[in-house]
């Protein structure tokens, strides 16, 4: 049974590989984004030493690794699920001898693997050449970061699956999905590190899962969080991963009783 | 002209009919669009909590540019919504249907894809611009209003020209080129003080993908920023150049178009 799920990873990976040309421009776009934010932050730092606990050098690294991590964990599982629900093909998925949500997660992993090897990897090398990015020297930081990156992917995918499954309950999910994308980019810390938010907002962020997607792993990568602090942020990620399983499970269970196909 | 005006009216009626099927989601979509644009505003607001100036520009000035940008951007997004062109018109062959009709093909394609709710962004932008206008104590008279209108028209023309040309690439190749998403990412950077970037990005934003003319250049006409003021008056000129170029390239593409054979 498990090997069937592994096949979904393989198939999606090969499918992505067939369309790899589409992602070359993606590397360019992400590098450009890093460049623009790099120059903006340079202008902001000016004479200041640290902002929100980041030195100017750390901020450069933070921007580079955050965008490139986004290149890895980003996927459109929400859109895929919403489309399956809208055109009715989810009905076929129900009668197949596997769990649809797991299959989606596996397909996401296949895509993630592709993005890691052909998007984030080369992108990170280019970013290191163009900008003064300081890679961590501590092997522990590397190990922790790679594991946290996997958790970022899982949590982001969970949020995507959750948003996608909302299509069972609302007829047109488009606005929700767009809203989710903005919220994740904003609150995960890709655009601004959470520690720079005004106090009340960063206080709220501590109780939301978004920080686990970008801010925490990138903080480890830049060396802003070290030693035992790493275990703590890792714990936060694991906690959110566990918590998010519940709403997905409940939604999936109640969705089966109220499937409503629009002209499918 | 009467013919084209009546077409606009008919397309509008059709648009409203289709929208009313999903009316509950209308406001969610408008809100999510605004939120999408707000990310950059939030970025600006957050960084100015930690600094007083961005490359010599104050917070009110940077937000002023941002508010200006939202006006042409909202107009552009309402009327020029060509994102799915290659997929819908080339791959699925709908371009053949368009070409059999008497109205200009670009005009029809634009009208079939209008998205009027995006104009709300323009109003929000105008309000933001107005607030900063008062804060910065800029004089406001009939001359300023006229200049503002000319600038906005110029910016919309640049936008339209660039995206028309890029969309017309689909006539030559139906494979996604990745240029459209690239442009979509670049366009936002014309909103920041251009002098903070290095020379290469400045040249790109001024002459190649001239999105600085949709934000920082025209807005600086009203501000005390000598560096870019000389460029402000170029906005309508660039608008005419890019729009003409875009339409000519579109017409050339239509002549070369052979259909996908579907």
How would you portray this structure in words?
The complex is a heterodimer of chains A (264) and B (262). Chain A is 72% helix and 2% strand. Chain A has eleven helices and two strands. In chain A, strands 1-2 form a two-stranded antiparallel sheet. In chain A, α1 (2-18) crosses α6, α3 (56-73) packs antiparallel against α6 and α4 (77-87) runs parallel beside α7. The longest helix of chain A has 31 residues, at 100-130. With 262 residues, chain B is mainly α. Chain B has one domain (2-256). Chain B is built from 13 helices and no strands. The model of chain B has no long low-confidence stretch (mean pLDDT 86). The chains are: A mainly alpha (264), B mainly alpha (262). Chains A and B meet through α2 and α8 of A and α2 and α9 of B.
Strand content of chain A: under 5%
**Extended strand count of chain A:** 2
Number of H- or I-type helical stretches of chain B: 13
What summary fits the major beta sheet of chain A? 2 strands, antiparallel
Unreliable spans of chain B: none
């Amino acid at each position: 049974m498990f090997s069937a799920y592994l096949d979904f990873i393989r198939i999606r990976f090969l499918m992505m590989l067939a369309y790899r040309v589409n992602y070359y421009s993606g590397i360019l776009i992400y590098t450009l984004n890093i460049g623009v934010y790099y120059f903006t932050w340079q202008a902001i730092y000016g004479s200041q030493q640290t902002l929100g606990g980041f030195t100017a050098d750390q901020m450069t690294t933070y921007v580079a690794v955050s965008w490139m991590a986004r290149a890895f964990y980003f996927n459109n599982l929400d859109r895929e699920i919403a489309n399956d629900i809208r055109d009715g093909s989810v009905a076929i998925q129900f009668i197949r001898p596997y769990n649809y949500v797991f299959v989606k997660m596996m397909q996401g992993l296949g895509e993630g693997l592709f993005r890691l090897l052909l998007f984030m990897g080369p992108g990170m090398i280019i970013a290191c050449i163009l900008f003064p990015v300081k890679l961590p020297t501590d092997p522990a930081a590397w190990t922790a970061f790679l594991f946290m990156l996997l958790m970022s992917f899982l949590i982001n995918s969970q949020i995507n699956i959750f948003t996608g499954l909302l299509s069972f309950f609302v007829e047109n999910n488009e606005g929700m999905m767009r809203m989710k994308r903005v919220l994740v980019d904003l609150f995960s810390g890709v655009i601004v590190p959470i520690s720079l938010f005004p106090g009340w907002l960063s206080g709220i962020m501590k109780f939301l899962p978004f920080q686990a997607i970008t801010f925490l792993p990138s903080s480890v990568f830049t060396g802003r969080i070290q030693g035992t602090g790493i275990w703590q942020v890792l714990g936060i990620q694991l906690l959110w991963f566990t918590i998010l399983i519940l709403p997905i499970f409940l939604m999936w269970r109640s969705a089966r009783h109220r499937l409503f196909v629009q002209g499918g | 002209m009467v013919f084209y005006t009546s077409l606009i009216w008919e397309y509008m009626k059709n648009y409203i009919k289709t929208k009313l099927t999903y009316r509950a989601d209308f406001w969610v979509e408008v809100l999510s669009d605004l939120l999408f644009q707000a990310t950059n505003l939030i970025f600006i607001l957050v960084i100015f909590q930690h600094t007083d100036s961005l490359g010599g520009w104050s917070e009110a000035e940077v937000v002023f540019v941002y508010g200006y940008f939202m006006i042409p951007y909202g107009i552009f997004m309402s009327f020029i919504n060509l994102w799915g062109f290659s997929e819908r018109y080339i791959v699925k062959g709908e371009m053949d249907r368009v070409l059999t009709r008497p109205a200009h093909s670009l005009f029809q394609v634009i009208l079939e894809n209008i998205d009027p709710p995006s104009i709300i962004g323009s109003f929000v932008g105008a309000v933001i611009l107005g607030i900063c206008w008062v804060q910065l104590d800029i004089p406001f008279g009939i001359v300023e209003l006229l200049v503002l209108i000319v600038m906005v028209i110029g910016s919309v023309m640049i936008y339209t020209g660039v995206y028309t040309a890029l969309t017309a690439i689909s006539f030559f190749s139906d494979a996604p080129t990745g240029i459209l998403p690239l442009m979509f990412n670049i366009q936002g950077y014309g909103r920041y003080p251009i002098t903070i970037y290095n020379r290469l990005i400045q040249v790109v934003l001024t002459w190649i993908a001239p999105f600085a003319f949709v934000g920082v250049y025209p807005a600086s006409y009203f501000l005390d920023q000598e560096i870019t003021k000389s460029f402000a008056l170029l906005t309508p000129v660039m608008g005419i150049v890019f729009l003409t170029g875009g339409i000519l390239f579109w017409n050339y593409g239509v002549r070369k178009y052979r259909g996908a054979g579907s």
